[in-house]
Amino acid sequence: MLKWVTQSASVRYVLPFAAFLLSVAVMPCLEVSPRTGEIIRLVVVGGAVLLVARPLLDFRIRSWAGTVAMGVAVFVVWIAPDLLVAGYRDSPLFRNAVVGYGGSVVPEAVRTDLVFLTLRSVRAVVLVPIVEELFWRAWLPRWIIRRDFTAVPLGTYTTVAFIVTAVLFASEHGAHWDVGLAAGILYNWWMIKTRSLGDCILAHAVTNACLAGYVIAGGQWQYW
Question: The dihedral of CA 46, 52, 53, 54: what is its sign?
C-alpha cells in the first residue's frame, strides 16, 4: 500500500492536500486544546508532505522581486473589499448556507497565546502554501489538460484548466470566495508566467504572512 502511494504520480500531489482538508474537517470535532489541534495539523499534514511529496518540492525562485510583489498584491486584493465598502461581507452573497457565514474560528481565549499564534502562523505561511500550490497549480491544471499530467509542463495554459482551477480554488475559501477567485486567477497567471512551483509557493507564503500579520497586529480575526 505504502509503495503504491509513494509511486503514484497523482497521489504525491493530492494526498497532502487531502490530509489538509481532512484536518480542517475533523479537528473541530476533537476535544483538544487549540494548541494541540495546531500541533496535530502540523504533524499530520507535514508528515504527508514529507512522506509522499518531498521529491516534488522545488524551491528555486526565478523572480524574487516579482514573486514577492505578487504575494503582496494578492494580500491587498484579499482585504480591499472590506476596507473600501462598509458592511461588504454582510451581503447574502457571502453569508449563506452554501458558502458559510464567515467569522473567525480562532477562540478569543487564545488570541493572545504566543505559542498558538506561532503554530497557526507556521501552518499558514509554511505548510499551506506548499500543500495548496502542489495541488492547485502543479497538479490540477495539468491533470485537467491530460490525465497523463506528468507529460504536461508546469504553467501550460488552457482556458478550461485555468477557469476550473480558479473557480474550485475560490470554493475552498467559503465566505471569502470572491477574493479567493481573484487570488486563484492571480496565482494561476503567475504559474503561467514563471512556470515555477517555487515562485508560486513563495507568492502564496508572502500573501499568508502579510495576512497573518494583519490578523494578529490589527485584530482582524475574521480572516482566520
Answer: positive
Which parts of the chain fold into alpha helices (H)?
Answer: 2-7, 9-26, 34-48, 64-84, 114-122, 128-133, 140-145, 159-171, 177-194, 197-218
Contacts of 178 (CB under 8 A, 6+ apart): 81, 93, 94, 170
148 belongs to a structural domain? yes
Instruction: Say what the pTM is.
Output: 0.94
User: Is 47 a domain residue?
Assistant: no
**28 part of a folded domain:** no
With respect to residue 195, please indicate whether it lies within any of the assigned structural domains.
yes
Tell me: the pLDDT tens digits for 23-50?
Answer: 999 988 888 999 999 999 999 999 999 9
- What residues make up the domain containing 158? 59-223
